[in-house]
Amino acid sequence: xxxxxxxxxxxxxxxxxxxxxxxxxxxxxxxxxxxxxxxxxxxxxxxxxxxxxxxxxxxxxxxxxxxxxxxxxxxxxxxxxxxxxxxxxxxxxxxxxxxxxxxxxxxxxxxxxxxxxxxxxxxxxxxxxxxxxxxxxxxxxxxxxxxxxxxxxxxxxxxxxxxxxxxxxxxxxxxxxxxxxxxxxxxxxxxxxxxxxxxxxxxxxxxxxxxxxxxxxxxxxxxxxxxxxxxxxxxxxxxxxxxxxxxxxxxxxxxxxxxxxxxxxxxxxxxxxxxxxxxxxxxxxxxxxxxxxxxxxxxxxxxxxxxxxxxxxxxxxxxxxxxxxxxxxxxxxxxxxxxxxxxxxxxxxxxxxxxxxxxxxxxxxxxxxxxxxxxxxxxxxxxx
Length: 384
Fold this sequence. Notes:
The chain has 384 residues and is of the alpha/beta class. It is built from eleven helices and twelve strands.
């Protein structure tokens, strides 16, 4: 017997008042009254529980947009590309459709095309490290791949740590030390030499563990090349691939794409890699870049270079937020300086680019907010 039937019988058969029936069964008096009046009007139909859904849902996402969300999800998945709510949100924005990430996620979940994973570690707990400037640090690694006929090849990539911009990606029958130096110089010829590199401890990158744990006194061709150009070489800890996390994560994204578009030859695979690099650099919004493309982040601020710290051409980059008083504080020449912007820009995230005595402040979107000509004898620096 349903709750509704019990309450109605308490009034009609037992002869209880609305107040008494409500007290005995732990409900409100108005509910008992409503059910009794419904019984008087509808009879036995009043015993059936009613839907609590609203008669209309004016804020519900239109069916056409919901269908477009699912269509984009299916298309991205078929192409082997990232198909999460963030990516779908960016593609909809390009079509002048504004939809929040959470709404897209609910649409995908209700259609049962994604499975929630609450057991995964929250992103807020991650500790990120990112180089402050483009070309400040390049990560490199190699990975194995199989062609459609089962033959195995190797892929080498170079990726900018600051922007995730892929400076080089190519496939080879086998990656050798010569391949490393050739691809590095090819990337540098187009994008400039980085200030530092980060790789694992493979013999193609370093000989410090060659022949055992005792490092050799002479480096290989890649180490020699870096030394000649004044480039700092960094290597991750042995058996700790997370140190090179950005290039390792890049392989996951790449292989997802290649799985959906198998290549039968080395030449065909290289064409797939070139096409993927163009999409990844120029069109794919990146979560770690606030949904901006790697190409945008790579060209937003000046690039670092393998220069000495006292080089007059070196750029200093500072990421900060304008305080409540409209200032950003920084140390300049062993003295604390305060760059003034005005209270109207308080709490604005900024990037301060300092070159000599000239400071330019831009937003993360590239908009110039202010310029300062630093006077070393003053603590407060007004805008020019």
